Amino acid sequence: MPHPSVLPGKIEALPRSQIRRIMALAAEMDDVVHLEVGEPAEGTRAEIIRDAMEAALNGATKYVPNAGSPALRKLIAERISDRNRVAVDPGRVVATTGAVGALFTAMSLVVEPGEEVLLPDPGWTNYQSMVLFAGATFRTYPLYPERGFEPDPEEIEALIGPKTRAILVNSPGNPTGAVWRAPCIDRVAEIARARNLHVISDEIYEEMTFDADHVSFMGRDIDDRLWVVSGFSKSFAMTGWRIGWLVAPAHSVESAIALQEPTVSCISAVSQAAAIAALSKYPQTPGELAAIYRRRRDILVEELAGSGLIAARPAGAFYCLIDITRTGMSSMEAALDLLEKKKVAAVPGGSFGPRSDRYLRLAFTTSDDRLKTGCRRILEWVSER
Ligand code: PLP
């Protein structure tokens, strides 16, 4: 008997991050240096876990409001208002299932089938999937290593066509480690306003900056078209709790909340308790984590200094792209070879966009010692090619 088909074509069309193949192979080997994993090795702070357990024992085991509790929305609004020196009304904040939930909500509300979104290249693979799943298409705008992986805003403007509805931006960036500066952000905001486009700003790495502060898209007079995405995964090392947030334009926040109901209902009550504890009792956590990543960024830059491999010195997040053009390999070939010969797992750049096959992404989330070992193995690998 034939069975009914499942979303014909829709799932097959989604790009899969090439990281899966590398992770599967690495899992079967010993002594691998894991530079592929995009999450803090530290894990969630024990006090936050204890507070969440306590809350669960005291009844935080039930549904919460679609937008998250008023207490959590208020704490999030206070945090981002303080950080970005803008006044954010808690009514514009929706607590979501990770930053992914916030991105999915924004993308679903902003584009219709047949429309178009502008995405960064190199950029996080899931942006492409979300656009395609919404039935829309994307064009990519280049991020230049020689500009510290900032875009040229005029190039973004030149890509805008009659079907373009939104520009997606991500600073600090995955996989680039770039932190865009104010002039670039101001200009992109200005273009979005002039051309009547939405801006979806993924600021999930906002607290992971090393040289200069993060600049938000907030406070640039585009609040009526700005969707800011962030969360607890990276700043508080809480990836598995699945909790993030969306700051929506005031006129669309009810739609964003309404969309939670049939998709996820609400965030988990235990995660909400953990998030409240994180913001109200341990607000210093992101700064402590950022100090660890700054140190690891310095180790990586020092170890690879002089090799010419680093595409641009990472200023934020916890990634560094290395340019493997000289090996003459595709990024997948290079990642497989590096794993096989030197037992270092890295992510092939090919899945970050059409111009990114010359890169491997290294995540400096592992311990200082393993990071040093990984860098030395990479140098050996390159010299033997
Ligand atoms: N945005 C970017 C750029 C990311 O790198 C990630 C995770 O790696 C996410 C969003 C997803 O964050 P979350 O785990 O909170 O859904």
Description of the molecule:
The mean pLDDT is 95. Helix 6 (153-159) packs parallel to helix 7 and helix 10 runs parallel beside helix 12. By secondary structure, this protein is of the alpha/beta class. The protein has an eight-stranded mixed β-sheet, with helices on both faces. Strands 10-13-12 form a three-stranded antiparallel β-sheet. A two-stranded parallel ribbon has the order 1-11. The protein is 39% helix and 15% strand. The protein has helices spanning 19-27, 46-57, 70-84, 98-110, 125-133, 153-159, 182-194, 253-263, 269-281, 285-304, 331-342, 368-384, and strands at residues 33-34, 93-96, 116-121, 137-144, 150-151, 164-170, 198-202, 226-231, 244-247, 319-323, 344-345, 347-348, 359-363. The radius of gyration is 21 Å and the shape is globular. The protein binds pyridoxal-5'-phosphate. Pyridoxal-5'-phosphate (PLP) binds at residues 38, 98-100, 124, 170, 174, 202, 204, 231, 233, 239, 244.
Short description:
With 385 residues, the protein is α/β, with parallel strands linked by helices.
How would you describe this structure in keywords?
globular; 12 helices
Please state the overall shape, judged from the principal axes of the Cα atoms.
globular
User: What is the strand tally?
Assistant: 13
Strand content: 15-25%
Low-pLDDT sequence parts: none
* Integer average pLDDT: 95
Number of helices: 12
Distance between the termini: 53 Å
Q: Give the bound compounds.
A: pyridoxal-5'-phosphate
Largest sheet, spatial ordering of strands: 2-9-8-7-6-3-4-5
